[in-house]
Specification:
263 residues, six-stranded mixed beta sheet, 9 helices
Length: 263
Amino acid sequence: MLFDGVTFEYIDAQTGERLRAIDGLTAQIRENEFFCILGPSGCGKSTLLYLVAGLLKPTQGKILVGGRVVKGPGADRGLVFQEYALLPWRTVRENVALGLKIRGVSREERDAVARRFIHLVGLDGFERKYPHELSGGMRQRVAVARTLANSPDVMLMDEPFAAVDAQTRAVLQEELTRIWAQSRLTVVFVTHNVDEAIFLGDRVLIMTPRPARVHSVIPIDIPREERSWAHLDRDPRFAALRGRIGDVMRNLGDGSASNHDRG
């Protein structure tokens, strides 16, 4: 994936003023990489994700996914929102299979695919439950399963664990790394949390305040097999990365960037 001089401007609804949210941002994400994006609150992290999803169009520059310029939404990209965005009148199985149904996939095939990904996210036995019968963490697992069921090449995640408690968040982070290791998707993960970015990411891109540019891209050099919340807090490599990235965020004037709370 390539961001090639991406600029995004919009018209302020109250003042009519043209504002620049992202300014000439250039970065490259490797295939099958778990790539985290950090930045001050309101800097345009989610906007960048929506540009990749094709929900917004760059004012200047271009985004390439799989060597093709993004011109709109596509099945090669799946988006998981911070809020669960599930249909409350559909069961877990129906929500997971929704995209397949829209594409005209047979009921037999979409049920088989739904069962596969419900199992992958650890929700066996909940297929007939409705969203209101599930915890927040379980609803977010359904959202991940629904995205995976559509076989995207890239999964875009917009602070997906921000609405759950710290203990659930830590469990979901570990489960997400397991799912990613099995699927080997490219994941672009927006977060406001330094610890979460270090735990999940292969690299972390830090954005400047608006208009957003790339401040730095920091590799996370802790091997995957050594990343466990049971041990990571005592790892000096983790502490060093936390200090380095936290210092950058504070220097950018972001008092909202958090640590310790697993997100």
